[in-house]
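Q&A log
Question type: sequence-to-structure
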Amino acid sequence: MKADIGLVGLAVMGENLVLNMESKGFAVAVYNRTTTKVDEFLAGRGAGKRILGTHSLAELASRLTFPRRIMMMVKAGAAVDDMIAQIVPHLDRGDILIDGGNSNYEDTMRRTRELEAQGFLFVGSGVSGGEEGALNGPSLMPGGSAAAWPFIKPIFQAIAAKVEDGSPCCDWVGSDGAGHFVKMVHNGIEYGDMQLISEIYQIMRDRLRLSEDEMSEVFAEWNLGDLNSYLVEITRDILRFRDSDGVPLVRRILDTAGQKGTGKWAGIAALNFGVPLTLIGESVFARCLSSAKDDREAASKILAGPKAAPFAGDRKAFLADLGAALYASKVVSYAQGYLLMEEAAGEYGWKLDFGSIALMWRGGCIIRSVFLGRIKEAFDADPALRNLLLAPFFAKKLAESQGSWRRVAAECALSGIPAPALYSALSYYDGMRTPNLPANLIQAQRDYFGAHSYERTDRPRGEFHHTNWTGHGGTTSASTYNV
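Response status: OK
Response body:
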């Protein structure tokens, strides 16, 4: 028997993807560098299924139908390049390699060029949903060699999560690194959503003094409405979970959050493209601050905060404010993420379908939510929409939410509760709605000390001027450019 697809890397995600593929009617050949893992898998979860175990890459290649389709689920970075180098000698022209890890999109662009030059096809696909999604239906974001799509589409769309109308949460994203770029933005938004939820949790815990059960009930209620999402749902469940002695387990988890780099990559890309990805950036830095546990412990004994009186307001009304602030801040996070994708699409010539991307994220992935349906509707109504904040539905929601948003931000500031993502979202909203920012003074300063010149409000755009501010300088100005 020949297999329809091969998979390299039998960690949890790899194993679950194999089982997902097999359950949809595909025969799968598997290989793992530690070959005993192959035998253990076939004797365990893979027993009695259309799964072919192989003990070398040559054997893997020999067991596949043409063109060969091989999906790699290995650690991002040098490990992917090493695996490609080992597989390529066993391939023929037209065979397809798929990287399903969290690779940097620039690596995927390079690998696509290099492999296409050798006659092979390469796909870099984002895979979201964790181990549960891999088994039951992930969100898949493939990009790379377009000629590969007809050959992997039947498998990818069969194993992907489905939304209410049966549409798969998988479609072709674009050329070279587009798939991994979109996955990177997805993960950045995930960082933002998680940080926002954690800030709301801290406000409930430290300002309202709610118990874990009370907080869980709030998240359960929110999950029935506009905030319905996977992350709100699991937050509800986490807060309910008890340790073996009945104490809420979340109390015993150290407040240091890890990260694997995709959020950082999104921030770096935003800086390179000049996109104000402020909320996601603050979410990355918040994880960095959380890791400085010893420094925070020491500083807490030295740095003074406000002596806030116990909360005396209407708790029910303030909880409603928290929900509205969370929703409004999520709008900003997604708006910034979409701006980053739009900028990259222009830079690299990718034809990204933003409504389709929202659909791909509606099921299977970590940020799945009803909210994404509204984003798809916004881009369906206006495919040229520049900023989600300007879509009529979201503009109305933000206007309705801003009173709550500001009350929450003020309460945090006055009571000394850090809320960097919430603050950042509100500041971005206010910046976007301000026609005259104070950057005129910054540009005057730049011209004063560096002769960087400036544009004038009473002259056409693109016309630059320099002033001899001190009377000692000359009329020569520096060249004008922006990084």
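Response note: The chain has a mean pLDDT of 94.
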